[in-house]
Amino acid sequence: MKNILKKVGIFTIMLGLLGGVVGCSKPDNEKDKDASKESKKEVVVGFDNTFVPMGFLDEKGNTVGFDVDLAKETFKRLGMEVKFQPIDWSMKETELNDSKTVDVLWNGYSITDERKKIVSYTEPYLQNKQIIVTLSDSKINSKADLKDKEVGTQQGSTALDAVEKDKDFMNSLKGGAPVLYDTYDKALRDLEIGRTSAVVGDEVLIRYYMGQKGEDKYKVLKDDFGLEDYVVATSKENPELCEKINETLKEMKKDGTFDKIYDKWFK
């Protein structure tokens, strides 16, 4: 499974390379409101438990993944217990900001200009790309070939954002919009049985999925939707937790722990 990820060489470690691009802070006159959060000893991480290899359930039902390992080590160093809470990924910001069922979003969470307005976020720690995958025997080789075709993606994802921003591409699809799924594995299964012609999604997930199911069954198009950055997000009401996570990740990068976890999943 990991060989295909290694061969592509796509996942760039970003942490500490972007000159402190981080969105954890908020106005000083609001920080006192969060003092009580400093003593909290349990943190709840919201994640999509089908998002391989970042956070998912293995054959035994255990929560595993690259982001899971990073989170476990981070909160161990912070002296906090961590609980992983599966959530509807299309409602992730609502779970974080409104219902407050989770303290952190950590599961291949891509930062966008829209999301910067509603969450606190760490420095980027990994770079990803939104790609298009189809079956290997398909005659589809470009975005243009998907005209009047059905294309799947995950609801509430940055893949959907990317498709919607590419107006010409979206309008060319059958029905003028992609087919939406609550998880990527459902979207990919529909591709396999011919219900859709392609899937747009995170390269980190699709490459891992291809490695599991058989790389020769699929074809990744040269056309894509560009690069994006993964971050860890907290509520804007809790920038202190965001700052602690950010500093701990930087420590892990400096002492080699981050790279060891990266190598476990991607090398």
UniProtKB/TrEMBL annotation:
<keyword id="KW-0732">Signal</keyword>
<protein>
    <submittedName>
        <fullName>ABC transporter aminoacid-family extracellular solute-binding protein</fullName>
    </submittedName>
</protein>
<dbReference type="Pfam" id="PF00497">
    <property type="entry name" value="SBP_bac_3"/>
</dbReference>
<feature type="domain" description="Solute-binding protein family 3/N-terminal">
    <location>
        <begin position="42"/>
        <end position="267"/>
    </location>
</feature>
<dbReference type="InterPro" id="IPR001638">
    <property type="entry name" value="Solute-binding_3/MltF_N"/>
</dbReference>
